[in-house]
């Protein structure tokens, strides 16, 4: 993949922890969109992947939605009811418009969601990086999607289109793939099958020497179930359309905020809960 701009580097306490790519040069089939990669722990361990061989359309950390009024902003094949995953010429792109704010520890960005020559959504994305301890920091990621068309726009997923358990779409983090699958857990559940599709205040993914802890930071975000993969590939998302499509009326805005703790080492439940409280405190 060719990077066609200078990008932006996020820093915590002077240390680089993430690079934000505003205009990655990607084929249309991958639904080009701004993303964060690489994201690292404070000691420098990478905890994201960009276009890995198993899923070329997985792009670090960002917002990806497989169905916006039938347009694919996720990349790859589209799940068609009674047909399955299908190659369609329906891919959209998220286009960086401008930074409203750009600092070493964060930014505010305006984006346009465009498909078939039409702008469907306008997004304001706010990202901030904050130090928590000498071995952990937090990525605060808010996105606001506004319907700028004159008709309702709805967001769907393969699950709402007939594929059970595949409610991906929204905030998504493609994590580092290692020889062994990562451990995933919440405050009261353990393992991919136990946490996938559930609602939990936080969800942790721990690999070899690193831990990611995802927390919905608003009541609305906490109502969205978690999409979790560990065995096939390591990835975590927050599902906008779990069992029903999410409608956005003309002029209306859907807002979600996810705070992710990025820590060196493997955390236990008590350590995880303490860092989440610190990261999401008012």
Give a description of the structure:
By secondary structure, this protein is mostly beta strands. It contains three helices and 22 strands. An eight-stranded antiparallel beta sheet has the order 10-11-12-13-22-18-17-16. Strands 6, 7, 14, 15, 19, 20 and 21 form a seven-stranded antiparallel beta sheet that branches. It has a three-stranded antiparallel beta sheet with strand order 2-3-5, with no helix packed on it.
Provide the gyration radius in Å.
Answer: 17 Å
Strand content: over 45%
Globally, the shape reads globular
Strand order of the largest sheet: 10-11-12-13-22-18-17-16
Q: Helical percent range?
A: under 10%
The mean pLDDT is 96
Q: Assembly type of the shown chains?
A: single chain
Q: Look at the helices and sheets and give the structural class.
A: mainly beta
Count of DSSP strands: 22
Low-confidence stretches: none
Q: Could you state the order of secondary-structure elements as H and E?
A: EEEEEEEEEEEEEEEEHEEHEEEEH
Compute the number of helices.
3
What gap, in angstroms, lies between the N and C termini? 39 Å
Question: Can you summarize the main beta sheet?
Answer: 8 strands, antiparallel
């Amino acid at each position: 993949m060719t990077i066609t701009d200078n990008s932006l580097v996020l820093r915590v306490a002077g240390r680089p922890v993430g690079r934000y790519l505003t205009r990655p040069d990607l084929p249309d089939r991958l639904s080009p969109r701004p993303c964060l990669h690489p994201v690292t722990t404070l000691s420098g361990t990478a905890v994201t992947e960009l276009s890995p061989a198993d899923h070329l359309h997985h792009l670090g950390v960002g917002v990806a939605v497989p169905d916006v009024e039938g347009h694919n902003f996720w990349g790859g094949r589209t799940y068609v009811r009674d047909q399955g995953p299908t190659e369609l010429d329906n891919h959209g792109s998220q286009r960086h418009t401008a930074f409203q704010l750009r600092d070493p520890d964060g930014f505010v960005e305006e984006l346009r969601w465009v498909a078939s020559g039409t702008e469907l959504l306008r997004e304001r994305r706010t990202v901030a990086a904050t130090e928590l301890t000498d071995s952990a920091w937090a990525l605060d990621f808010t996105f606001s999607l506004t319907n700028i068309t004159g008709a309702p726009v709805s967001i769907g997923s393969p699950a709402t289109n007939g594929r059970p358990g595949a409610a991906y779409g929204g905030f998504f983090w493609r994590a580092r793939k290692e020889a062994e699958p990562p451990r995933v857990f919440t405050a009261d559940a353990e393992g991919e099958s136990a946490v996938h599709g559930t609602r939990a205040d936080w969800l942790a993914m721990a690999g070899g020497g690193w831990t990611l802890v995802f927390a919905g930071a608003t009541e609305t975000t906490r109502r969205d179930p978690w999409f979790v993969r560990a065995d096939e590939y390591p990835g975590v998302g927050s599902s906008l359309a779990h069992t029903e499509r999410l409608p956005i009326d003309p002029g209306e805005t859907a807002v979600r905020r996810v705070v992710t703790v990025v820590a060196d080492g493997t955390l236990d439940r008590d350590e995880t809960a303490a860092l989440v409280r610190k990261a999401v405190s008012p």
